[in-house]
Write a structure and sequence with these properties.
Elements: E1 17-19, H1 20-29, H2 31-41, H3 48-60, E2 70-72, H4 85-100, E3 126-130, H5 135-145, H6 149-159, H7 165-174, H8 180-188, H9 194-197, E4 207-211, H10 214-219, H11 221-239, H12 259-264, H13 299-310, E5 317-320, E6 334-341, E7 344-350, E8 354-361, E9 369-374, E10 385-391, E11 394-399, E12 405-410, E13 419-421, E14 423-424, E15 427-428, E16 431-432, E17 445-451, E18 454-459, E19 467-471, E20 478-479, H14 483-489, E21 504-516, E22 523-533, E23 540-546, E24 554-560, E25 573-579, E26 585-591, E27 595-602, E28 606-609, E29 612-616, E30 623-629, E31 634-636
Parallel strand pairs: 5-9, 19-21
Antiparallel strand pairs: 1-2, 3-4, 6-7, 7-8, 8-9, 10-11, 11-16, 12-13, 12-17, 14-15, 17-18, 18-19, 19-20, 21-22, 22-23, 23-24, 25-26, 26-29, 27-28, 27-30, 30-31
């Protein structure tokens, strides 16, 4: 395997600097991301177990040396992501050391330090390696192994870090590669497998364990016991600095002591918004929420919540919405709530990007839970409620201070009246949760909130922030709380179950066509439901068909991570096979209002002008649909 030499790059005095405290804060927040970067760039011939430990070691050794160190950040390393100069500096250092591990030894007898087994971390008696993936993951791993270290670095920067080609070239130059163009061309031969790099196969922080050589271990039992005892003594000494870990509850032992980190974990420095500040705030978002609850003055509870956020121990159940970083706070967060709800003590925090919910049983700190959810850019109805607690199949919300009324309603029964929910200090009474609904879908309970701008519908999809429900054209959606919106959603409410737990921000139902059915069988409705996510990607669109009198809609086509049915591409085409009351089968197809013609080929051949097509067909026939828009562009079926 050929690799390129790496040499330090001189920096000018005009470049910004990052001190050790800033770098350490960035390392704590982005640790999993940096370790994955190192793991993917390190030579595959190290073996998976040793590569995992080496990746962790390289990242832990990436900090600038000394408390007073101010390290320059080269211009090419910054400005291409929002992680800040601290992360940019650490990324450069991790790349340098990982690339150095792939250089040949030369004439010396000793291997390079980054190829030696790491001094720390060490694992005795176990081999740790990421979970095995499927055939696609194995194929990508083999393709990465065939690349040089420089090409792997170029691929990781482009796919994992999502940097543009110009940025990739400049970062590779910053770490000292003499010919980044060659590395990029080699990396470009591999397709950008964004989803595969997020799989457990390539996650060196999500590991499985297997024993080492048991025969050799039996021969060295006494030595292993002595080493384990020494390690245990050192662990106790490290884990008990100052006040010890007792006040931090279920948090892991502290391993970083610096003013910036400790300020973020000090309950006295939590941001607390005045109760009436939202009335004069320029934006209706989470930053305007006051601190509520009967335990906002419980410093011990708040300290435990902050400590567990920064260092969740092994007993803490941690969950995060897809695409949500789970690192500790970069500075003192905002307190939204602290109080007792049902059988738990709940603390709700906000750092401008994420909502973080800490929960512990009333009678102990054992069984603590920590939940993360993205909430960046939320305002109005999207910032109107947060899940406080789920128990016995019910859910309670904390509502925004501008909410004046809360109610529960069944989305499947448009004509039914909503049931009022009590509001106490912003906390709703319990309502049925759809987060873990199993079996037949016979109802779908949603939260209806009323504020100065009107009523809004929100659905619990198993995460901290409920999804907002809207109806109408993608370019101009409106709240689904009106009579027309409720009628539009009723047949398709159960389809919300398909997007539970996927970080959904809002779901819009757009009736893009009505189609008179053959044989005077009434009029069918074509509706596209599109779920947008907080991370801005992996949106899901469903084209659904509802025959007259049908209680539910039927999914005719599905698309993931595409623009169809959305603001960027407000067009859709879908088709179904439908059986009339007389027993005849028809191929039905519909496009949006801007569809000029539809053509069917294959098992059923037909062409229709306009947005609708209906033609006799055989049961089970396979047909291909294409369309033309008013402006002459082609329109493909949703897929």
């Amino acid at each position: 395997m050929q690799s390129q030499d790496v040499a330090p790059r001189p920096s000018s005095s005009s470049e910004p600097v990052v001190d050790a405290e800033q770098a350490e804060a960035a390392l704590v927040e982005h640790y999993p991301r940096l370790v994955k970067l190192a793991y993917l760039v390190l030579p595959p011939d190290l073996g998976r177990s040793r590569r995992v430990l080496t990746a962790h070691s390289l990242v832990q050794r990436a900090l600038p040396r000394g408390r007073a160190t101010a390290s320059p950040v080269p211009a090419p390393a910054r400005g291409y992501d929002s992680a800040g100069p601290g992360y940019a500096l650490l990324r450069l250092q991790v790349l340098r050391t990982a690339l150095a591990a792939d250089r040949p030894r030369g004439r010396g007898r000793w291997p390079r330090p980054s190829r030696l087994p790491p001094l720390l971390p060490q694992v005795w008696g176990l081999r740790l390696f990421p979970r095995s993936g499927g055939a696609d993951e194995l194929a990508l791993d083999q393709q990465l192994a065939s690349l040089s270290a420089a090409a792997r670095a170029a691929y990781v920067l482009r796919v994992l870090e999502r940097l543009p080609d110009t940025a990739v070239r400049q970062v590779l130059s910053a770490v000292g590669l003499s010919d980044p163009g060659t590395a990029q061309r080699a990396a470009d031969r591999l397709p950008a497998q964004y989803a595969l790099l997020e799989s457990p196969e390539f996650d060196p922080c999500s590991l499985q364990a297997r024993p080492t050589d048991l025969v050799r271990r039996r021969q060295h039992t006494k030595a292993a016991l002595a080493a384990a005892a020494a390690l245990a003594v050192c662990g106790v000494l490290v884990a008990l600095p100052g006040d010890g870990w007792g006040p931090d509850g279920a948090a892991a032992p502290a391993y970083a002591r610096n003013p910036s980190a400790e300020a973020a974990l000090d309950p006295a420095r939590l941001t607390r918004i005045a109760p009436a500040a939202w009335r004069t705030a320029t934006r209706q978002d989470f930053s305007a929420w006051p601190a509520r609850g009967d335990l906002t003055g419980d410093a011990d509870l708040l300290r435990r919540a902050l400590a567990v956020w920064a260092r969740p121990g092994g007993s803490v159940h941690v969950s995060a919405t897809t695409g949500t970083p789970s690192g500790g706070p970069a500075g003192p967060p905002q307190l939204l709530y602290a109080g007792e709800v049902d059988a738990s003590r709940i603390v709700l925090l906000y750092d401008g990007l994420r909502l973080v919910r800490y929960a512990e049983p009333k009678d102990s700190t054992a069984g603590a839970a920590l939940d993360f959810a993205r909430a960046d850019g939320a305002s109005g109805a999207e910032a109107a409620a947060v899940v406080l607690d789920r128990s016995d199949g019910n859910v309670r919300y904390l509502t925004a201070p501008w909410v004046t009324k809360a109610a529960e309603r069944d989305l499947m029964r448009a004509a039914s009246a909503p049931l009022d929910l009590a509001l106490h200090d912003g906390v709703t009474g319990p309502l049925a949760s759809q987060a873990q609904q199993t079996g037949a879908c016979t109802s779908w309970q949603v939260l209806q909130l009323t504020d100065g701008s009107g009523a809004h519908l929100l659905s619990d999809l198993g995460e901290l922030v409920p999804a907002r429900l809207t109806t109408g054209r993608p370019a101009a959606p409106r709240d689904a709380s009106g009579a027309a919106g409720l009628r539009a959603w009723a047949p398709f409410a159960c389809s919300l179950g398909a997007v539970r737990g996927q970080g959904v921000r809002s779901v819009n139902a757009w009736q893009f066509a009505e189609q008179p059915l053959p044989g005077a069988s009434g009029t069918a409705a074509w509706v596209c439901t599109r779920a947008e996510t907080w991370r801005g990607q992996d949106a899901q669109a469903l084209a659904q068909f509802r025959a007259p009198g049908g209680k539910y809609g039927a999914v005719a086509a599905k698309a993931e991570d595409g623009p169809a049915c959305g603001v960027r591409d407000p067009h859709v085409l879908a088709g179904v096979l439908w059986k009339s009351q007389r027993g005849h089968w028809y191929l039905l197809a519909a496009g949006d209002a801007h569809t000029a013609s539809i053509t069917a080929t294959g098992g059923a051949a037909a062409q229709a002008h306009g947005q609708l097509l209906a033609v006799r067909a055989e049961q089970g026939v396979q047909a291909q649909l294409t369309g033309k828009l008013d402006d002459g562009r082609s329109l493909g079926v949703l897929h």
